[in-house]
Task: structure prediction
Amino acid sequence: MRLKGKVAIITGAARGLGRACSIRFAEQGADLVLLDVARDLAGVSYKMGSESQLNHTAALCRQFGVAVLAEPLDVRDLLAAQKTMQRAVSRFSRIDVLVNNAGIAAPSGKIVHEIEEAEWQLMIDVDLSGAWRMTKAVGSVMIAQRCGSIINISSTAGSVGYRHFAGYVAAKHGVIGLTRASALDYAPFKVRVNALLPGSVRDDPRMEGVMLSEIARSLDVPVAEHEDTFVQAQPLNSLIEPDDVAHAAVWLASDESRQVTGGVITVDGGFTAR
Ligand code: NAD
Result:
């Protein structure tokens, strides 16, 4: 029960890494505010998490006896994010952890100058500005408490480039800049901010994540071939499991990492060590 007594907000919680983090946080005793856009997004070529998937994540978490608030929220909507925070504070009286996990991998698959301005803006708006908006909504609460842990889910794409993914790569590099700058802003108030950089994560059917197959689709490569490429490219020679990322997030959320802030922590099987 490493998170007993803590309240954690997790965005993009309907499926994938967000669901994996939600379950591990619940297992460790955290009360949860689970958020997801829970509808499809114009301009994104694949399905987003749904309201029923969000409710399913919430039900899986409640099995551990924790309190769970699950609500739709688009991280592009600052006003809605602020209202959600107010509801979370009035329900739980505090917010100890924010996991900025919501993200999209498409529109992608184009050489940089062929990206349309609207496609570029959408990617930055969700994957980078979304994390900033949620930080803006929660920051003053954590400062008043004089404690908090913000965990930004970046990617190996925040550390190295990938062909035909300039918008995603730029957004995920931006998330690392946001992490470092906000870690310095918040350090005087004992609020910590760290980034996790997952490598290529297996689409575990129990988590209903789709990102690996959507990235393969963007690149017009069969999923099995794309998986094989990353099994070879990640020196530990396997795909990352959603739980590998969730365990790292639990540690960053817990007091065990109390001296860790501004950290850029890979969970990539050694991919970026080369
Ligand atoms: P996923 O597509 O399975 O899940 C993402 C969730 O975010 C979905 O439920 C979706 O509805 C939600 N979401 C998308 N846009 C949103 C918005 N505007 N507001 C609120 N919610 C929104 O993807 P995943 O693999 O679980 O990815 C989670 C995070 O991990 C993303 O930030 C992604 O970039 C990052 N990541 C994933 C991988 C991977 O291989 N899967 C690798 C590195 C980093």
